[in-house]
Structures are given as structure tokens and as C-alpha cells.
Please model this.
Amino acid sequence: MSIESGHRTETVSPSTGPLPGQRYAARAEGVSKVYGSGETRVTALDGVDAGFVRGELTAVMGPSGSGKSTLMQCVAGLDRVTEGRVWIGEQELTGLPERALTELRRDRVGFVFQSFNLLPTLNAKENITLPADLAGRTLDTDWVEQVIDTLGLRPRLAHRPGELSGGQQQRVACARALVGRPELILADEPTGNLDSRAAGEVLGLLRRSVDDLGQTIALVTHDPAAAAHADRVLFLLDGRVVTTLRAPSAPDVLETMAGLEQDALGSASAAGEDTRETGR
Ligand SMILES: Nc1ncnc2c1ncn2[C@@H]1O[C@H](COP(=O)(O)OP(=O)(O)OP(=O)(O)O)[C@@H](O)[C@H]1O
Ligand SMILES: [Mg+2]
Model:
């Protein structure tokens, strides 16, 4: 597959796709997402083909505004695509009635939002078990306890989100996605508010749930060290997947990011923006 990215054209090797016998837990085909119209029209995704291989940790990287959160929301069925198709497992989301979409999301997807989305009136423990409680599902108590301990949340379980630090709220949001072992976890910058030790623990737990439980996770991150935990890294630029790396090291990721930032600067100047004013 040949992919245009600004002035570069890269060839994505077939080895970056699933190996024979591997299946996608979710995929997007030709997905575009346009917000607004007229002068406020923004093309957040511009023909994205992306897949999250079952039983793998996939990192999604790219400059701010490149469409990472939008891709997560579209794959989760939280947002409707403007064009293209999305599947979770074999189930196509595009065109699914709202109610079926809500049920599918509830039963099969765990989402860690960039802005946490905890319910302010529930305490940490109630927030963690909420999706399972709503679905009337029984959780594996040992796993729930393990998630709570690994994320260091035990002393905070009775506190409401308003009484928790940003990092603690983020860990509650991660725990909420992990405890139900959904088919797919979409985590949008789950370590963005954490210090390096807490971030390492969250990433370690995500990695373990992939290795030990066969969990599928898509992880949006700006951190090359976090992306280096991944089996595969997708890079977005201007709403397109421009590069995929297979099990890269942190320096590999850094090098690719540097190249993309150059491309982003190039496309910003081409669009007539004064890049000096954006501080880049
Ligand atoms: N609801 C919305 N209405 C209008 N534009 C939006 C909306 N959501 C996102 N956008 C725009 O779509 C583009 C992609 O946004 P998105 O949030 O997906 O970026 P991102 O890669 O997640 O960035 P960040 O790293 O800053 O979180 C941006 O230009 C953003 O301003
Ligand atoms: Mg985002």
C-alpha cells in the first residue's frame, strides 16, 4: 500500500497488517469525519484505514489535532462517521440503530476518555463497576481487586471524583475500562495526567491484560516510551494514517514523530499559518 504524507511517500509493508490467522477486534475502512460546515468546517478524519488486531496493544500517535480522539470515538460508535465503514469484530457499526449501538458499546467496548467522564455523584468504586452494574453483569472479583491494587486506588475507593486528583480520576477511568474485560479497550491518553511511576503502572497493567488475558487495546499517546509497549503503532497526520510501525523501540518512535512534525510544519505553512505564533 502506498501512502502519501505531505512531501513524503511511504510504503507500508504488508508485515504491519495482521498475520494469517489474526483477526481485527475493530477496524475502520475509508473513514472520514467532518465537523461543522462552511467556514467552521473541519475534516478531522480523511479516509482512514486502520485495524486493531485481536489480542494486541496498538498505540495511536500523531500531532495534536491529527484526529486521534476522533478515530477512537468513531471506532467506539460514540460518533457517526461522515463517510466509510467501521466494524467491531464482525459487527458493522455504520448504519446500526442508536439503541443497538449503545448495547454493543456497553457489552463489548471499554472506553477511557481523554477527559475521564466519571459520574460526579458516584464514588470511585461505584464508577469502576458502573458499566457492569448497568449491564447486569457479574465481574471477576479477583481481577477487580488486582486492577484496583495495581492502579493504587484502594485508599480512594470511597471518594467521589471531585475529591480525587486528576491522576487518580484517570486511574479510576482506566480501572472502569479494564475490570469488565471487554472485547476492545479504547484508551485516549490514559497516562496523560500521571507521573512516570503511575504511568508505568498503568501501561504495565494494560500490557499484562493483553499478554495474560488476550485483551485488545488501542492506546492514544504522545509518549514514545508508552508507544514502545505496543505491538504496533499507527501514526496519524491531518486525519490520515501515514505510517505503521511493528513493535518499535522508543527511539524508532521518536524518529518517526520527528519526521511527522516536520510534515505537520510543512502543511501548516502551506496552509498559510504563521507557525511561529503557535509556538512550534
Ligand atoms: N466536536 C467537534 N467539533 C468541531 N471540530 C472538532 C470536534 N472534535 C474535534 N474537532 C476537530 O477535529 C480535529 C481532530 O481533533 P481530535 O480531537 O481528534 O485530535 P487529537 O489528535 O485527538 O488531538 P489531541 O492530541 O490534542 O488530543 C481538530 O482540528 C479538532 O479541532
Ligand atoms: Mg485527543
